[in-house]
Amino acid sequence: RRLDYRQAGRLLELPAPNALRALVCRALRSLNQLESALINAGVLDAATGRPVVADGSLPASRFECLVQACDLLLRPATSSHRPPGVHPHLAERLRGVRLDSDTTDSSQAQPHQLPRYARINRLLAQPAEVRARLSADGFVAIDDAEGGDVDSLRPGTYLAADAHIPDLLTFPAADSARLAVHPLVTGGALCLVDKASCLPPVCLQPPPGAWVLDTCAAPGNKTLQLAAMVGPAGRVLAVDRDAQRFCELRRRLVAMGAGDRVRCLRCDCLQLGDWLSQRCRDRITHILVDPSCSGSGLTARSVERQALDGGAGAGASDAESAAAKEQQRLASLANFQAMVLRSALTDYPSARRVVYSTCSVHSEENEAVVQELANSFADKGWRLARLMKSSWPTRGLSAFDCGPMCLRAGPGTDRTCGFFVACFKRDTGGSGAAARTAAFGMRKSSGRRRNRKR
User: Fold this and answer.
1) Was 217 annotated as part of a binding site?
2) What is the active site of this protein (predicted)?
3) Could you list the active site residues?
4) Predicted pLDDT of residue 54
5) 222 annotated ligand binder
6) Interval 419-432 mean pLDDT
7) 21: Cβ contacts below 8 Å, ≥ 6 apart
8) How many angstroms separate the CA atoms of 450 and 454, rounded?
9) Which of 121, 124, 310, 410 reaches 20 to 30 Å from 36, CA-CA?
10) Contact (CB, 8 A) for 224 and 258
11) What span, in angstroms and rounded, lies between the C-alpha atoms of 225 and 198?
């Protein structure tokens, strides 16, 4: 029942995927108003949230009803697109219904509606060129990265600098649809991202000329960021085992100008040693581990999932069964995540920094995995690095020893999707109990000073 963009595009007969993305973004921002209009028009059932009939006289799913209603009722006045794909019976039932798009957008200014972030792709354009094009298209830059309030940005303005991520621009959520079809985005000079997803490469800190391994690379946003950081003398090895995701990854990297800096490998990252020579493994100094996770931190995804599934009408027994299945799924994911991180800490003798990240809010996938591996590898010279100790306020959960060393991000304070980042740094001088103490960033020299006094 969950339609991907291409299927929905054929359904709606839209002229281009970018137009569809803009439409879906607009439908999700206006979800409550569209749902109310459809219920009042007798299209959706108020109890279940699903279409009242399934005989073909109305769109077959909740998602189709919401998106087609958005295309009919909230199409921008400047759009030349006519909605031929809207179901005729749906159009008849919604005849005379009017929704004010400005009121609809502003009424959704809730904590989950985040700013729209875009990172400049230096592989194709320089910041000055991007700024000049945005200015020519009517966008006004605000240069104060520290003092700028992202929630007070008005449509048509943007923050031209970010306090944490280089080359990151911040736009108001109301400009999401406009940005989705902007030539800078469709041409690759701007990458639409979430700010939190840009944190792992920044925390990894690969210098120019470094060799970097991206273990679970698709769809490639972090790979592109890493390719720009290592420069023309560096290399990024981008690994993904899924055939469809791998093809999309390789196509996107070439289109975005990273083809000469990135080598794509389709294989299981846990079996990468069979694909790489010892000489190649010895050259890898920085590793990014961003494995498959529950995706519980992606607020937009959770809203979309609610829109697709209908959500309402589930009984208590169904909820308990779903909770049990979710716990089993989290345990399976955490086991896989620990295996990938363990491989990164074990199989690459020259590795100096390993960053582990997820777009999850569950401690089972975050602090629990990191603490287990920090304990296991303290004797092998790995310790946790304290990330952005003064500039990023949200830390890991205090219930875990590793919590203060890690970063968390969320829609409240940080105005991002939910995210988690931890960094392991190789310390060749640490061993034994001293290394286990250093694994969580604690002092380990006081005992030696006391011995000297004696």
Assistant:
1) yes
2) 359 (nucleophile)
3) 359
4) 60
5) yes
6) 80
7) 5, 180
8) 6
9) 410
10) yes
11) 8
